[in-house]
Design a protein that fits this description.
Layout (H helix, E strand, L loop, with lengths): L6 E14 L2 E14 L3 E5 L6 H9 L7 E8 L2 E2 L5 H7 L4 E4 L3 H4 L6 H13 L3 H14 L5 H4 L9 H13 L5 E5 L7 H18 L2 E6 L2 H7 L2 E6 L2 E7 H6 L4 H8 L5 H4 L32 H5 L5 E4 L2 E3 L2 H7 L3
Helix pairs in contact: 4-5, 5-7
Length: 331
């Protein structure tokens, strides 16, 4: 695919439904966003908000029963219309993904070198010698020492952090335009987390790789991302820059997530955490109005009756909330 154009990824009104014997699960509802070249976009939300489903829909890694609608354009091309056998050439080359647990993503019976070289031969058409040289370069790129020796070792001989580095190296093997990272630091200790995040920051700077970081950790978002999408109940609730999210928060759900963050005594004074009350939404029984209404302390009658549209709060800052709409006079 041609890498020209500013938007490397454009998603418009994407929905994902899962038919089940008990009813239809509306996992993602009419989500739209774009990703620029060299940008790191964060997607945040609690478990069940639809963030991982969004990423797997982009990669076509969902079960066959999943119904995906909407328009998804990668490097200007409609990838929804690409046949499955042809999409295998796109996945792993133009768009790649790293997962939460690297041990389950690497095959334990093959050496790291075999797995990395197989990716290079498949997507880059390299012979064994060229693939071996490039595999060494990729391990060096992700700061794995003694790469020539490490290529001959098996995944169990690597630490968790080094296995995740291998997964990043494999993801970069095809020089992808977009790298999806689904909670890639969750299984790692804090020190290794910081190293992996620094590595991803370097990749953005050095290779202009566009990254989508899926996480529930707002600390990671503030440290790494340029823009952020907040999801709840499969919907996009708020989107904007990091400063918009932390300092010009518009949606009550986003404010609730921020209130759950522990603060240092020096910066905020000693106070209890404020959890979001209520229970997460049942995705088989979507409400008529706002998805967050039943848990929102500022819920109005209007919120229960009608679903709000995304309203502009500022330059690129959007919020799906009737409070915002009324304030802006667009309700």
């Amino acid at each position: 695919m041609d890498n020209s154009g500013q938007h490397v990824l454009q998603v418009t009104d994407m929905s994902v439904d899962f038919p089940t014997p008990a009813g239809v699960v509306h996992a993602v509802s009419n989500v739209s966003f774009s990703l620029e070249r060299g940008e790191i976009l964060g997607i945040v939300g609690e478990s069940g908000s639809g963030k991982s489903t969004t990423a797997k829909a982009l990669m076509r890694l969902l079960p066959k029963s999943a119904r995906i609608t909407g328009d998804i354009r990668l490097l200007g091309h409609d990838i929804q219309s690409v046949k499955k056998k042809d999409f295998n050439r796109v996945r792993g080359k133009d768009v790649t993904m790293i997962f939460q647990d690297p041990m389950t993503s690497l095959n334990p019976v093959y050496t790291v070198g075999n797995q990395l070289m197989e990716t290079l031969k498949l997507h880059m058409g390299m012979n064994r010698m060229a693939a071996s040289r490039r595999a060494v370069e990729l391990l060096e790129m992700v700061s794995i020492p003694q790469p020539e020796i490490r290529l001959k070792q098996y995944p169990h001989e690597f630490s968790g952090g080094m296995r995740q580095r291998v997964m990043i190296a494999m993801a970069l093997a095809g020089n992808p335009a977009v790298l999806l990272a689904d909670e890639p630091t969750t299984a790692l200790d804090v020190t290794i987390q910081a190293q992996i995040l620094e590595l991803m920051r370097e990749l953005k700077t050095r290779l202009s790789t566009s990254i989508i970081m899926i996480t529930h950790d707002l600390g990671i978002v503030s440290d790494l991302c340029d823009r952020v999408i907040v999801m709840y109940g499969g919907e996009l609730m708020e989107t904007g820059t990091i400063d918009d999210l932390f300092y010009r928060t518009a949606h009550p759900y986003t404010k609730g997530l921020l209130n759950c963050l522990p603060q240092t005594a020096a910066s905020k004074g000693l106070k209890r955490l404020e959890p979001i009350g209520g229970t997460p939404l049942d995705l088989m029984m979507l409400p008529e109005g706002c998805a967050f209404a039943s848990r929102c302390s500022r819920c109005m009658k209007l919120c229960l009756k009608r679903r709000a549209e995304l309203v502009s709060v500022g330059d690129g800052h959007m919020s799906r909330c009737w409070l915002t709409a009324l304030e802006k006079g667009v309700a």
